[in-house]
Amino acid sequence: MKLITETVEQVEFLTEAAADGGKNYFIEGIFMEADTLNRNHRKYPKHILLNEVARYTKEYVNNSRAFGELNHPAGPTVNLDRVAIIIKEFKCNGNQVEGRAKVMGTPMGEIVKNLINEGARLGVSTRGMGSLVKKNGYNEVQPDFMLSAVDVVADPSAPNAFVNGIMEGKEWIWNNGILEEQTIQEYKKELKKASSKKLEEKAIKLFEDFLKRL
């Protein structure tokens, strides 16, 4: 069996008023799709995907155990110290599996909230284990597929929001106690030294370094 991940960027990040006067953050959209060739050249037969979603819903979603992390770890196991979201609902609509997840008040969840507030575009990515069989130029997911989690991941615009936060001294960098002042100053120097052509490449590298420090 292999670790199988699929990223979805067309989801919405919503806010709703909380009872304490604050805001709750939610992710909604199409999390998975069956019988459709995705950009990773994989296809999930409808009966396999829907059966697994039903199992995951019964065992995890309905028992408040459907956690997701900020960025994918190296394996299928959910690391509780990196949990950022909890799936509240899966709903099957034809070939599509629509999801709704709440961004939690954990350290990783707070990072997600602040990235959203900074204007970052984020996506979600499913993570599971299963076998693949080659068919007509694509890989078909087999009946042993098991969904492990749905994680929050960054798309290419996230490093730009991160860089803006660094350069403008946004509060979220300090409030979460993630980076020391010395590290931020080093990031600023690196960004200022980068040429306009190399700025995006440098931003991505610094953002990756930032995530490793979380």
How many domains? 2
Tell me the distance between the termini.
29 Å
Overall average pLDDT: 83
Shape: globular
Label the structural class.
alpha+beta
- The quaternary organization reads as single chain
Topology at a glance:
Layout lengths: L1 E7 L2 E7 L5 E11 L8 E2 L2 H14 L7 E3 L13 E11 L2 E8 L3 H11 L4 E9 L1 E4 L2 E4 L4 E9 L3 H11 L2 H5 L5 H13 L5 H14 L2
Parallel strand pairs: 4-10
Antiparallel strand pairs: 1-8, 2-3, 3-7, 5-6, 6-7, 8-11, 9-10
Helix pairs in contact: 3-6
Describe the structure.
With 214 residues, this protein is α+β, with helices and mostly antiparallel strands. It folds into two domains: 2-154, no CATH class; 158-212, no CATH class. The protein is built from six helices and eleven strands. The chain has helices at residues 46-59, 107-117, 158-168, 171-175, 181-193, 199-212; strands at 2-8, 11-17, 23-33, 42-43, 67-69, 83-93, 96-103, 122-130, 132-135, 138-141, 146-154. The strands form three sheets. Strands 2-3-7-6-5 form a five-stranded antiparallel sheet. Helix 3 (158-168) packs across helix 6.
Which key terms come to mind for this protein?
single chain, alpha+beta, three-stranded antiparallel β-sheet, 32% helix, 214 residues, five-stranded antiparallel β-sheet
Question: Can you describe this structure in just a few lines?
Answer:
The chain contains six helices and eleven strands.
